[in-house]
Amino acid sequence: MAHKRLLCIAPAHVDTDALLCDTMPDWEICSVTSLAEAARELRNSHYLVGLLMHDREQQRPGDIDTFLRRHGNMQWVGVFSPRDLESTPYRELVVEHLCDYHTAPADPVRLSYTLGHAHGWAMLKRRRQQLIDHGNADSPLIGHCDAIVRLRAQIERVAKVAAPVLIWGESGSGKELTAQAIHAGSERAAGPFVPINCGAISPTLIQSELFGYERGAFTGATRGKAGLIESADGGTLFLDEIGDLPKDLQANLLRFLQEKTICRVGSTRQIRVDVRVIAASHVQLQQAVDKGEFREDLYYRLAVLPVTVPPLRDRREDIVALAEHFFQLYASEKAPRLKGFSDRAISAILDHGWPGNVRELINRVRRAMVMSDGRLITPEDLGLTRGIPAPMSAALEDTRARSERSALRDCLERSGQNVSRAARDLGVSRTTMYRLLSKHNMRP
Ligand SMILES: Nc1ncnc2c1ncn2[C@@H]1O[C@H](COP(=O)(O)OP(=O)(O)O)[C@@H](O)[C@H]1O
Ligand SMILES: [Mg+2]
């Protein structure tokens, strides 16, 4: 059982020893007479529970509010005169910051009972917090459902070998986090982890970004530069959205995987690089191989160790724990009165399909923490108001599909049925373009 400690703030004329010691023999009590003194004590020492006996002479509501806001991680019990409790600022204080209050003169027995309860409450909260923080001390992946337990075991196994890994999963499901965990669990952990999003670098730059270039390789190359592969030497290279890698670079990458050497652009010198490659994709690469968009030989090279990250909707049991984790993580951005999710919010969270996966969850929770003006986050704060009538959403879906089809048709027409160019015009990757075309049964 943890030692119970109380920080008691009381006016100098109150004999706190006489008031508390008899009824609270198992507590260690530190008494101070001002908020400033209390703040000093809290800088040096840790308390779960505080007792604020209001001193009308010395403490203004604004000061108390500032103080309690700063120390909102403790459970506070207040003692106020009946007269104080009639005025709005004090009532606000009680509602915002205190877990309970008594009217002066406080009854020692009842007060000790309240403080004991506050301590028990604080312990429960702390335990939950520890579970959230350290639930899996050696994994950054939060969750206990079967799918995550399996993923964690897979990460552990894969981390120990040197072969390439191919991670598949929907956007925002945790592919990059998984790659980081593999790196961190490998013997390369002390080396660099270098992520590259193949879909985000322009096709004209990606060659020199990946492989580097020699001085004079092209106009403006006044100095040579190491590429990202070289900079990952001794560590892990994470190739995100590998499906977007242009075909000619797929050949170069394959050569690198086979020979473990690279040539900078504008040079024939072979440079040895010791890099472990982890690739990720949100599309099933096998399908891209079937369509001839992705080299089969490269696919087999990369997919030696396949890992699948399950979508959030298949991890129902973990969604609430994840939401609470992010709530705690962004707690410093939130209003201190915000205590958590309402029951309605929890059911809305469980009902939602989470197409954007964990990333969507993070965004919604952060947004809700800013938007909420109550003590608990509501479905409205999360933007998860159910009950949009079905016909309406079907109509929306229909409208959307129709406008997608017409945009695709227009762009293809303008580009002379050239898919790459049409994709560029639409601002999507070629992979996305093909996905859209097949979704709408269209052929260039
Ligand atoms: N199981 C998890 N536990 C904690 N955070 C997660 C988990 N899965 C994903 N995240 C977080 O969600 C966000 C999106 O994850 P990320 O790995 O970038 O997804 P992806 O690469 O699949 O798009 C990141 O901020 C990541 O830290
Ligand atoms: Mg990603």
TrEMBL record:
Keywords, sorted A to Z: ATP-binding, DNA-binding, Nucleotide-binding, Transcription, Transcription regulation
A Pfam family the protein falls into: HTH_8
SMART domains the UniProt entry points to: AAA
Entries under InterPro entries matching the protein: AAA+_ATPase, AAA_lid_NorR, Homeodomain-like_sf, HTH_Fis, P-loop_NTPase, Sigma_54_int, Sigma_54_int_dom_ATP-bd_2, Sigma_54_int_dom_CS
Transcription as UniProt keyword: yes
Domain named Sigma-54 factor interaction: residues: 141-370
Protein name: Sigma 54-interacting transcriptional regulator
Protein's organism: Massilia aerilata
Organism lineage string: Bacteria, Pseudomonadati, Pseudomonadota, Betaproteobacteria, Burkholderiales
